[in-house]
Amino acid sequence: MVSPEEKMAYYPPPESKGGWRRLSEPQEVRAKGGIDPDKLEIAWQLNQFFHPNPSAVVVIRHGYLVAEWSTFSVLPHTKFNIWSCTKSFTATAFGILFEDIRQDRIPGTGEVSLDSLACSFVPEGQPLTDALKSKITLRHLFTMTSGIVGENGGIASISIGGTDYGPFEFALGRCPNKYGARVSKLSAEPGSCWDYSDAAFAHLSLIFSNITGGEIADYLEERVLSPIGIEDLSWDVQGGGKFIGPHTNAHTGIHITARDLARFGYLMLQGGAWNGQQLVPTWWLNLCTTTSQEFNETYGYGWWVNNTGRLLPGIPKDAFAARGYNSNRCYVIPSLDLVVTRVGSGPPQWEESTIIEQIVGAIISE
Q: How far is residue 288 from each of residues 64, 75, 118, 133, 293, measured CA to CA in Å?
């Protein structure tokens, strides 16, 4: 049986230096991982049965890699675009930035908080395409309550057609996307509704760059990714040339392996701490992983949350997750000392309640 001290003291070295500690023998998985390997195998079989797309799944329990599966042609170092899981990385960068500003570690920034007006940090957006945009706060952007049109209004991406405009121009309401849709006018008063909007989240790239003079990807690499041993992550940029940018893509575009995504989840499992250093402020992590507004109780600040039991009713309420298109996922369940990641090229929808409940159901009472 693994001791509490052993669970809390362990942090995996980078993959180039050995990576995660692993349990391969069934008796070890039961004794040290506290989980039934036979029931875990059923979870993988369900994934293969429902979704034969290229994918990989990693299960971390008590700091041990207790299960790792992949489909044909997918190797441990195979990276996938995890799409909107990227939003959770962006939210993490901003949490650290807010704390840096609070501690006066970044001179000259002035006051910046969740209740700051977004337009004050986006000169590229002037003149505003809708006067209501002047009321949008950073909190509204993070919680999907800005009123900037998203999936509820039929806009699921900020993809641009042709070469007349760039993606940030679309996000700011200056041009249509490749389907001819626009986000020029808000769909509602900021703070009055919930709509999952990539265009809204894209504003955070510009805001971060204008506040710091740097990029989200570089900042997070220095403050989180490198310290926790993520060595092979790539992060797309958008724009540039004759258009606004290039800037880190805030809402999608991280390419990562299942093992390294599990590192990110494990950092959150440890309350944002790694090897004695508090990398992510505790107050920010607590805020991100609980319901952020009254319109969608399954959404926090860039993270999906289960504190009301509505996201995934069959698993503990303290669970939270990064979720992306093509069924990319990173689940963190602190009460079970559990991290589960899935990366892959599809399908668009996943039988996640069936599979994650099977993994949770494999845990042996301790």
A: 26, 32, 19, 24, 11
- pLDDT of res. 210: 97
Domain around 350: 4-79+256-361
Measured at the CA of 301, the angle between CA 192 and CA 119, to 5 degrees, comes to: 60
Question: So what's the pLDDT on residue 106?
Answer: 87
- Enumerate the β-bridge partners of residue 238: 247
pLDDT reported for residue 6:
53
Amino acid letter, 254: I
CATH of the domain at 58: 3.40.710.10
Domain assignment of residue 185, yes or no = yes
Does one domain contain both 210 and 106?
A: yes
Helix axes 86-102, 198-212, angle to 10 degrees: 30
Q: With 0-12 CB in 10 A as exposed, 13-18 as middle and 19+ as buried, what is 234?
A: exposed
Low-confidence ranges of the chain (pLDDT < 50): none
Q: Distance between CA atoms of 30 and 20, rounded to whole angstroms?
A: 18
Taking only the tens place, the pLDDT of each residue in 206-239 is: 999 999 999 999 999 999 999 999 999 999 999 9
Kindly calculate the radius of gyration of the chain based on its CA atoms and give it in whole angstroms: 20
φ, ψ of residue 263 in degrees (nearest 5): -60, -45
Residue 3 confidence (pLDDT)? 57
Residues 234, 99 within the same domain: yes
Burial of 133 (0-12, 13-18, 19+ CB in 10 A): buried
Nearest Cα to 15, choosing from 76, 75, 73, 57? 76
- Which pTM was predicted? 0.96
Q: Are strands 21-22 and 64-70 parallel, antiparallel or unpaired?
A: parallel
Q: Give residue 226's pLDDT.
A: 98
Hey, is 112 helix, strand or coil? coil
d(CA 122, CA 137): 12
pLDDT at 137: 98
Give domain status of residue 366, yes or no: no
**What pLDDT does 182 receive?**
95
